[in-house]
Amino acid sequence: MDVSLIQPGLSQTDFSFIALFLHADIVVKAVMGLLVFSSVWSWAIIVERQLSFMGLSSKAKKFEKTFWAGRSLDEMFEQVGKKPNDPMARVFISAMREWKESRGSGGSDLQIITLKERIDRVMALRVSRELSKAERGLGILASIGSASPFIGLFGTVWGIMNSFRAIAASHDSSLAVVAPGIAEALFATALGLLAAIPAVVFYNKFASDTMRYATRLEGFADELSAIFSRRIAGGKA
User: ∠ CA(184), CA(24), CA(191), 5° rounding?
Assistant: First the structure.
């Protein structure tokens, strides 16, 4: 049996990527398609996250420069209160709103302690929410990075099985018989690695970026908490 009859119209000597895909059976095609989709998806996340972290860093630097320029908290609140456009500003606004809403309350020691705890709790909650946004998409990168090699390996095994079936059908173990199936198998492996490697590399990068930004955001919240502590202790609540 001539193996070329299995896929009429396709040359067994054509090993271009398109030809390898067209030669493959439905299972290997599905594997290849899934890996290509995963690769495109991961790159879309990578580009979006990279631009996002660049924007976060730029906005944080700009806000910190404005915040430590000597303006009062009330002036800062009036300036950024309507449209807080970055996480650090939103942490500040959440704390200031809690502060302003509590200014009319009495000044007993218990109320002062409660106000301090409420401000810290509001800031901690806002920091947690902002970090959750910063981590968006990292779980998908981790999944693609860990699963893609195994999906590619499945396609590899299936392609090699096809080669053995071709040998059995043609009773011929020449390279011309086994080469197409082996080439499809190796192509599936390559696609798995192509999807996995960038996903793993950029997942680690973004995880590190998130940790650095978390330290920066939590540090600002601690500094702001100290400012409110001095205000409260000074009887300005």
Answer: 45
Chain-centroid distance of CA 220 in Å reads: 24
Nearest-angstrom CA–CA distance, 196 and 187: 14
pLDDT on residue 105: 53
Q: Which two tokens stand for residue 152?
A: 């590619």
Q: Are 118 and 102 in contact (CB under 8 A)?
A: yes
| Ranges of each domain in the chain | 11-233
3-state SS, residue 8: coil
Tell me the C-alpha distance between 77 and 92, whole Å.
8
Mean pLDDT calculated for residue range 140-153? 94
What burial letters (b/e) apply to 50-78, b meaning 16+ CB within 10 Å? eebbeebeeebeebeeebeeeeebeebbe
Place of tokens 């002036």: 75
What distance lies between CA 48 and its chain's CA centroid? 9
Which pTM does this prediction carry? 0.78
Comparing 34-43, 105-114, 180-189, 197-206, the range with the smallest average pLDDT is 105-114
